[in-house]
Amino acid sequence: MRTQDLIYFLHLCDSKSFTTTAEEMDVSQPTVSQALKRLEEEFKTSFFLRKRGNNIMKLTESGELFRHQAKKILDIVAESKELIVQSENQEVKLGVPPIIGATLLPIFLPELVKFSENINIIEKDGSRTIYQLLRKGEVDMALVGFSKPFVADNSPLKAGLIVQDSFDVFVSANHPLAEKKEIILSDLSDQTFVSLGTGYVQNKVFLKWAKKNGIEDSNIFYTNEVATAKSFVKANVGAMMLVDMATSANDGLVKLQIKDVTMPDFYIYLLARQSATGCLQDKVYQKIADIAKKEFPKKLYHD
């Protein structure tokens, strides 16, 4: 069966004329006649009741049935071509904030690069900024941190929880408080804190926590660079609230155990725009989820 024969057939169904179909399809009338003949021989039936000449009276019952099926076949062919083009040529823009990029991308990227060369990493300051890029359609999917579980509601986003972590307070290894096994909140009353800028979830979480626990605004220093913030803390400029996964032994930082206060949670989600869903995007989404399930079996809550 030739798909072009189906196109001629559907045009015949509308025009009821071999001549009109041939003229509008820019082929000879015998071309159209032979296409119909091939289809009728294929299905061993007649699709039209015909008059003499080039006019067709109407579709037979089998012709009407085949008309609907022919449309479906051509739709499937068109959709298949589109999916193949997407699979071969589509670029997936993956948005990643700096902290998540520094901690999770080294885990995901080696496998993603093997999987597809058409992944473009977009790194901007903070999860809040990346989330807005995703909502605007400037990235296709993103690894985004939230201070509470993400609720999709009517959002056009597909969401899977990759890993759950917590915020803690860190100081320099040379800080007097670093030597204590446990501290209480009042030990931090005169402490200067370093915070990231408004594009980061850390900023919102820390300011809410600081207000709740009586930490004065005048004792907070701001920077938009994660590395700069860590270097200030290491140099004993102040303490900083960070997620555990954002620190390493090389940072020279020590986590404080504060026994009389609850520390906020941090949830990292893989989000994707469902309106932009394509073959490659779906595969990248599933690949990241599979890697996360293997790497974070105790902290994974992927749906």
What's this model, at a glance?
The protein is an alpha/beta fold and 303 residues long. It has helices at 3-15, 18-25, 29-43, 61-89, 98-115, 127-136, 201-212, 226-234, 279-295; strands at 48-50, 56-59, 92-96, 119-123, 141-146, 157-172, 193-196, 220-223, 239-243, 253-255, 265-273.
- Count of discrete alpha- or pi-helical segments spanning 4 or more residues: 9
For the largest beta-sheet, the strand count, sense and barrel status come to:
9 strands, mixed
CATH arch. level architecture of the largest domain: 3-Layer(aba) Sandwich
What amount of the residues lies in strands? 15-25%
CATH fold category name of the largest domain: D-Maltodextrin-Binding Protein, domain 2
Question: What's the domain count?
Answer: 2
Helix-strand category: alpha/beta
Which CATH class of the largest domain applies here? Answer: Alpha Beta
Q: Can you write the helix and strand succession as a string?
A: HHHEEHEHEHEEEHEHEEEH
Low-confidence stretches: none
Determine the fraction of residues in helical runs and give it as a percent range: 40-55%
Radius of gyration, rounded?
Answer: 31 Å
Number of strands: 11
Q: Please tell me what the overall shape is.
A: rod-shaped
Overall residue-averaged pLDDT value = 86
Distance between the termini: 43 Å
